[in-house]
Amino acid sequence: MNRHIMGCVFVIALLPLFVGDAVASPSMLFSPNEVDFGQRSHIDVFTQEVEITNSGTTDLHILRVSRSCNCLLSELSKDTIPPKGKARLKMVFDMKGRLGAVRESLLIETNDPTNKRVLLNIKGEGVEKVKVSPWPPYLGKVSSDKRTSASITLQGGANLPDLKVREVSSDSPYFQFQSRAMADKKTALDVTTIEPLPLGRIAGIVNIVTDNPEYPKFRLQISATVIADIDICPQEIHVLKTDKEMPEVVRYITVEAAPGVDLELVQIESPDDDMQMEIAERINAFRIVVRNIRVTPELAGKTIDVTVRVDEEERLYRIPFKVTTLRDGKS
């Protein structure tokens, strides 16, 4: 009998330890647990916030936040939340011209044992309050060191026909904006790049104030791709050498000038007289088709030399071959 009593005492003595371990954990709560942004203009870029609370007894760690589309960006005020603490999850949503029902989500992964992966649903409706032409407002390829100008037309949409632009402003380091009235209740938004620009994709936000109380202001994102005055693709010509007989090897080279740059092809030289060059001219660019490439180990490092005239200055560009040898399916 004493043996049974001792066993019960031992179990009872350990019970608080197990209970304590089970309770000591983080617990994540959302407020709200679903975001409904209602009706938004199909061109809007706007922010929403949710509050994350740790109602547990140990630190809550936000391990990862994944998005369902690139129209959605997120930013946490902190990724470690102490017990009873809170954090803000800020979302930036770009409607990207979408009309009708919109449903997206964020997947939040945490160390909460009961909510390791939680889906935050985001919904609403896109309506046409403003017509933007062209859409999306993308300037295309622009020069890094020469100004490029373009015009975007704004007009009240089907849901808001009476709309005039009163004021535009922006703190973008890449673009200048100015508005001017047009006929038929349209407004021209004149955009000019500010040189020098960094190479690659750039974007800027313009804030627009209107005379319509139903839609007093909105934001519009303008983007462009900045290239050097001359862009050559590829920078290196990759070819494959195998033990098997290969069909004709053909490669392509594109030489493109930035807007406002005068480009003229002067000469092309190949490392092999048997190579054939075909040239197709495009707007401010040309394409070289290189045919009959004989792939040998000696070809590696040799170049196709392209001489162009850029704004009356001659330049030589050398594009080297890179040869990869493949034997029995292995490189």
Tell me about this structure:
The protein has 331 residues and is mostly beta strands. It folds into three domains: 28-127, Sandwich (Immunoglobulin-like); 130-227, Sandwich (Immunoglobulin-like), CATH 2.60.40; 230-326, Immunoglobulins (Immunoglobulin-like). It has one helix and 25 strands. It has one helix at residues 2-23; strands at residues 28-31, 34-41, 45-54, 60-67, 72-76, 80-81, 86-94, 100-110, 117-127, 130-133, 138-143, 149-156, 165-169, 175-181, 186-193, 200-210, 217-227, 230-233, 237-242, 251-257, 263-269, 276-282, 285-291, 303-310, 313-326. The longest helix is centred in the N-terminal third of the chain and has 22 residues, at 2-23.
If you consult CATH, what is the topology of the largest domain? Immunoglobulin-like
Structural class: mainly beta
CATH superfamily caption of the largest domain: Immunoglobulins
Read across the widest sheet, the strand sequence of neighbours is 2-9-8-4-6
Overall geometric form: flat
> Regarding CATH, which class of the largest domain?
Mainly Beta
Q: With helices defined by DSSP (H or I, 4 residues minimum), what is the helix count?
A: 1
Major sheet: size, sense and barrel closure? 5 strands, mixed
User: What is the distance, rounded to the nearest whole angstrom, between the alpha carbons of the first and last residues?
Assistant: 77 Å
Low-confidence stretches: 4-20
Radius of gyration: 31 Å
Q: Mean pLDDT, nearest integer? A: 88
Q: Number of DSSP strands?
A: 25
Q: What is the ordering of alpha helices and beta strands?
A: HEEEEEEEEEEEEEEEEEEEEEEEEE
> Helicity level, as a percent range?
under 10%
